[in-house]
């Protein structure tokens, strides 16, 4: 359409110039003699005054069908915002609204592989309309990146976008596919739209709400590729656990935020702030300081520059070692670690808390709260059909199946996959129990553990309120929250806990893969063997088709031995991290590690791949 319009305008221009030239050469004539020329001229003039009809571009995705099932929030980066995604009527059309919640960076993932199928390999350019808006009604500039996970190895490439002028809001963001960075079919390729610079806060406008619309996937000839917007987001490898990476960590509950703690420095340079009374009061036995950060080498710890014990680092490896997740973007330091060097009286710890690292670093947030476990469900039983939603303080649920009730045994935990309007916690209600209508996990009757869109309530918490006999708990299980909520699924299973661990010793070179029920591994180094002591834990980063993994000691004095397979204990695993505690190994191999044999192998009940193995020391 654009080429046709251009041709029409060029022809009109030629006609005007031609008539002007004729007018200069022709002598004065009667009205009749010039009538044809005058009519032609007036026709051209009339056409030039007619307003152009706006060009309506063909698009791949315009959200007008009300579907956003192919969109997901990516929250793994330390500076990721827990943004709220919604389809809204905005500026005369349906658009994807990205509402900032935590004041951090929104990362919005779009599954281009599912949208386009085999045609994803034809993408040469991606375009979309991005609008930013502030509650104040004022304008501030913002900018970000479109990340593309491309190829079979999901290599990340990026293009910049910006909304830099009020008159350029909305603005078209463009991402061009360069040679060697092509999308590949059936490889889980996605794009992620991030807004990492928002000038609204500094200019007094608050955080921007972002709107995305009219996405165009273009081939090399500029043709728009058709998209199937009915598809669901299929998480590629590395995205599945897109919430906070809790490997090696605990969950921090009842957190007190250190308001305003955001700073950056170079290697071995400290920076921080004076601790608030609320933050100091939360530093009690069993509490944990949690730091969300980035650093060039992945290290992070804290400094107390004014303590009565003197200027003091804690968590640097000399004075204890911080607990760091595998993503190296969350660090945790326990009260007990601090007390070991500063004493138990927090009034002597000084007024300031600082951060430091062995390379250039940036801290996004600091908080302190109580330590709670990270769970991995063993032998889970689904509560078939449990999906419902309600408003704040309204209960909804279903009658428990015999299979679900039978799985509620000592050591089990109920898992609810859910969301709430304000990101708050969720709990359960037993409306028919012999003990009376009963909430469990709301903070009064025990406390649920909530993280990454899941809530956990243990059998022991339920038994404390209703007794150990589950036949008295009533027929129904309901969910409830203090804000509008939605539950997607419910399961119950063995409450296997991932353990906090630090001082990790790397099993160098442990990377291998095999088919179902096939073992593979390597000879243990002296360093790995020496790290296998009481309180230690074997960590395996892996993937498998059914999520299961365990270890095998093929040369042990006790004989060829599986550990963690469900018969010889059960490992804690979630499809990405598998943990086997030293104490579990001891049950089947004995306490003398010299009898465990020379080799450690991995095994699973489906095709599996292990990327790395470490042995760490768990928190006591």
Explain the overall architecture.
By secondary structure, the protein is mainly beta. It has 5 domains: 2-49; 71-218, Jelly Rolls, CATH 2.60.120.260; 251-372, Jelly Rolls (Sandwich); 374-497, Jelly Rolls, CATH 2.60.120; 500-618, Jelly Rolls (Sandwich), CATH 2.60.120. It is 15% helix and 39% strand. It is built from 9 helices and 40 strands. Strands 11, 12, 14, 17, 18 and 20 form a 6-stranded antiparallel β-sheet that branches. Strands 21, 22, 24, 27, 28 and 30 form a 6-stranded antiparallel β-sheet that branches.
Features:
Jelly Rolls; mainly beta; 9 helices; six-stranded antiparallel β-sheet; 620 residues
In short:
The chain is mostly beta strands. Helices cover 15% and strands 39% of the residues. Strand 27 (449-451) and strand 28 form a beta hairpin.
Q: Which helices and strands appear, and what pairs or packs with what?
A:
Elements: H1 2-25, H2 31-49, E1 71-73, E2 84-90, E3 93-99, E4 107-110, H3 112-116, E5 125-133, E6 142-150, E7 155-163, E8 171-176, E9 190-198, E10 209-218, E11 251-257, E12 263-265, E13 271-274, H4 277-282, E14 287-295, E15 301-304, E16 312-314, E17 323-324, E18 330-334, H5 335-342, E19 352-356, E20 361-372, E21 374-382, E22 388-390, E23 396-399, H6 402-407, E24 412-420, E25 426-430, E26 438-440, E27 449-451, E28 454-458, H7 459-466, E29 476-481, E30 485-498, E31 501-506, E32 512-514, E33 520-523, H8 526-531, E34 536-544, E35 550-553, E36 561-563, E37 572-573, E38 577-581, H9 582-589, E39 599-603, E40 608-618
Antiparallel strand pairs: 1-4, 2-3, 3-10, 4-9, 5-8, 5-10, 6-7, 6-9, 11-20, 12-20, 13-19, 14-18, 14-20, 15-16, 15-19, 17-18, 21-30, 22-30, 23-29, 24-28, 24-30, 25-26, 25-29, 27-28, 31-40, 32-40, 33-39, 34-38, 34-40, 35-36, 35-39, 37-38
């Amino acid at each position: 359409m654009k080429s046709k319009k251009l041709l029409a305008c060029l022809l009109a221009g030629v006609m005007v110039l031609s008539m002007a030239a004729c007018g200069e050469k022709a002598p004065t004539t009667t009205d009749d003699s010039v009538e044809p020329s005058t009519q032609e001229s007036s026709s051209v003039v009339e056409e030039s005054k007619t307003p152009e009809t706006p060009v309506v571009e063909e698009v791949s995705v315009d959200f007008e069908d009300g579907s956003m099932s192919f969109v997901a929030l990516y929250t793994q980066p330390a500076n990721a915002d827990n943004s709220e995604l919604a389809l809204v009527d905005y500026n005369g059309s349906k658009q994807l609204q990205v509402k900032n919640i935590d004041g951090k960076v929104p990362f919005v993932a779009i599954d281009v592989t599912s949208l386009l199928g085999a045609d994803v390999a034809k993408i040469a350019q991606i375009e979309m309309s991005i609008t930013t808006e502030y509650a104040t009604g004022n304008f501030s500039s913002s900018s970000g990146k479109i990340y593309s996970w491309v190829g079979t190895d999901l290599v990340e490439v990026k293009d910049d976008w910006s909304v830099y002028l009020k008159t350029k809001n909305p603005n078209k963001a463009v991402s061009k596919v360069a040679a060697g960075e092509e999308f590949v079919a059936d490889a889980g390729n996605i794009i992620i739209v991030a807004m990492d610079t928002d000038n609204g806060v500094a200019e007094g406008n608050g955080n921007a709400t972002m709107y995305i619309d009219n996405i165009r996937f273009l081939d090399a000839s500029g043709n728009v590729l058709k998209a199937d917007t009915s598809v669901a987001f299929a998480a590629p490898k590395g995205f599945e656990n897109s919430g906070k990476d809790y490997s090696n960590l605990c969950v921090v509950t009842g957190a007190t935020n250190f308001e305003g703690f955001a700073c950056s420095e170079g290697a071995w340079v400290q920076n921080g702030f004076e601790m608030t009374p609320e933050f100091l009061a939360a530093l009690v036995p069993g509490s944990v300081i949690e730091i969300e950060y980035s650093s060039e080498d992945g290290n992070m710890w804290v400094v107390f520059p004014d303590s009565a014990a003197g200027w003091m680092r804690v968590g640097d490896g000399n004075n204890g070692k911080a607990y760091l997740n595998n993503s190296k973007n969350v660090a945790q330091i326990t009260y007990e670690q601090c007390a070991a060097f500063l004493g138990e009286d927090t009034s002597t710890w000084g007024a300031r808390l600082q951060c430091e690292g062995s390379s250039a670093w940036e801290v996004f947030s600091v908080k302190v709260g109580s330590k709670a476990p990270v769970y991995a469900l063993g032998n889970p039983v689904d509560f078939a059909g449990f999906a419902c939603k309600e408003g704040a303080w309204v209960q909804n649920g279903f009658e428990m199946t015999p299979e679900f009730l039978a799985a509620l045994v000592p050591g089990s935990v109920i898992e609810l996959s859910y969301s709430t309007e304000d990101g708050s916690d969720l709990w359960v209600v037993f409306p028919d129990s012999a003990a009376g209508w009963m909430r469990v996990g709301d903070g009064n009757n025990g406390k649920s553990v909530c993280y990454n869109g899941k809530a956990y309530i243990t059998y022991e918490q339920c038994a404390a309120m209703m007794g150990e006999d589950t036949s008295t708990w009533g027929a129904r299980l309901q969910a409830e929250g203090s804000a509008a909520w939605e539950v997607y699924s419910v399961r119950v299973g063995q409450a296997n806990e991932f353990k906090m661990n630090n001082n990790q010793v790397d099993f160098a070179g442990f990377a291998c893969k095999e088919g179902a029920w096939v073992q593979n591994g390597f000879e243990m180094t002296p360093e790995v063997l020496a790290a296998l002591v009481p309180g230690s834990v074997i960590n395996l980063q892996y993937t498998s088709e059914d999520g299961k993994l365990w270890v095998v000691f093929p040369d042990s004095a006790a004989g060829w031995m599986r550990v963690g397979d469900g018969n010889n204990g059960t490992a804690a695993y979630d499809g990405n991290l598998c943990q086997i505690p030293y104490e579990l190994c001891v049950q089947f191999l004995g306490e003398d590690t010299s009898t465990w044999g020379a080799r450690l192998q991995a095994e699973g009940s489906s095709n599996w791949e292990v990327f790395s193995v470490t042995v760490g020391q768990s928190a006591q």
